Amino acid sequence: MAVINTMENVVDVALSELLRDETECCTCERCMNDMKCLALNALPPKYVSSERGELFSKINNTMAQQRSIDIRVACINAIEFVKGHPHHRMD
Ligand SMILES: [Zn+2]
Predict the structure, then answer these.
(1) Buried b vs exposed e over 10-33: b needs ≥16 C-beta within 10 Å?
(2) Domain of 13?
(3) 14 C-alpha vs ligand 1 centroid, how far in Å?
(4) 3-class DSSP state for residue 1?
(5) How far is the CA of 47 from the centre of ligand 1 (A)?
(6) Which of 6, 19, 48, 60 has the fewest CB neighbours in a 10 Å radius?
(7) How far is the CA of 89 from the centre of ligand 1 (A)?
């Protein structure tokens, strides 16, 4: 039995959609992880427990959530923050 936060998957998809139209923001692994953390910290987690077989249908069911305003706002804020404070430059 696996316990996963389906919000991670939803945020991944929402971020990659938003970044398709975003030319100024760095999308290196470090910055992508920073954006994902910022967005996830601003959103309530959505945990599901599931047998392996059910897992993907449960993830797909939550994909509709990516359209929610809250998720888009959290992702846009995360992108704007990382654009202004790219941590990779300090490595
Ligand atoms: Zn970067």
Answers:
(1) bbbbbbeebbeeeeebbeeebbbe
(2) 2-90
(3) 18
(4) coil
(5) 29
(6) 60
(7) 7
10-63 tens-digit pLDDT:
899 999 999 999 989 999 999 999 999 999 999 999 888 877 656 666 666 665
Domain count, the chain: 1
Tokens representing 86?
């790219």
Ligand 1 centroid from CA 15, angstroms: 15
Ligand 1 centroid to residue 91 C-alpha, Å: 10
43 alpha carbon – ligand 1 mean position (Å): 23
Does residue 46 contact residue 62 with C-beta atoms inside 8 Å?
Answer: yes
pLDDT digits (tens, 9 = 90+) for 61-78: 665 655 688 999 999 999
Q: Evaluate if pTM is beyond 0.90.
A: no
